[in-house]
């Protein structure tokens, strides 16, 4: 039985951690171990005994800092001790924060997964770190073709043979299909971190325009983040504070089960968009900005709607189409669920990943 050490170095609970917990929980035929910062929700969801979970220190938010160097040094020592003690066969690095440790990890087989595109701050340094780190990898998994194309260009195609795309998947039994209902009142929802690059401000401005024409709509936003106060103030300035609810952290399946329309207004190049396929699986028509890996998920006008990033007029137009046309909402809903079942089933994503462990 192969022994695998899963490593994550991100200290918050997001799409990358949801991905990793699903993967770990599917490795029943393998002897699995985990090295992770103390993320209570993530740790509690991972189905491993406490003796197989190693809690590491959290990294600094400042990419270049003495604290981060100390944190990485300690983590590398701890990880190499685990590899030696447990006779680990494969090391699996989750995210770029863990990927950067690959040159220092004493394992013959290292596989990594990238969840985010490289962004502008310190881009030359990040390219250099990726270029060096990739030399030590067996394979690097991307969750979208957009990510693979970006890093292939930035690394001049040197490591392209190591790159593989495995789209994220959704648990079809957890995100059960609910056919649209011809409700008199409609609930528009968004679920994501409350950050400027997630574009909730664009959604609030679009909603305010629509609210002038339609008094049967409501906006509910799930998620936490630094932009909450600014978004609350914006809703008040736009005169829709009584029609917009900020729910904080909420299980996405809970909110999606009562939603009529899902809108994602990301400004940044989303690497994939896990919550989008969760909404599609749940039968909620999706409207999303055409950035990053999102166009790989949605077939425009068939399984959802795409709009140009930051274009509020297009957001309004897409939402209004769904408000006025229940038949269209139903068609989009059915097509979206079929697409998820065919292309984004979690079982398929896990199977393709596990095949790499057995090569």
Structure report:
This protein has 359 residues and is α/β, with parallel strands linked by helices. The protein has 13 helices and 13 strands. The strands form two sheets. A seven-stranded parallel β-sheet has the order 3-2-1-4-5-6-7, sandwiched between helices. Strands 10-9-8-11-12-13 form a six-stranded parallel β-sheet, with helices on both faces. Helix 6 links the parallel strand 6 and strand 7 (163-165). The longest helix is centred in the N-terminal third of the chain and has 21 residues, at 66-86.
How are the SSEs placed, and which strands pair?
Layout: E1 3-8, H1 15-25, E2 31-37, H2 40-45, E3 53-56, H3 66-86, E4 90-94, H4 96-99, E5 109-114, H5 123-134, E6 139-142, H6 145-154, E7 163-165, E8 186-191, H7 200-211, E9 217-222, H8 228-237, E10 244-248, H9 252-256, E11 261-264, H10 274-281, E12 286-289, E13 305-307, H11 312-324, H12 326-343, H13 346-358
Parallel strand pairs: 1-2, 1-4, 2-3, 4-5, 5-6, 6-7, 8-9, 8-11, 9-10, 11-12, 12-13
Helix pairs in contact: 7-11
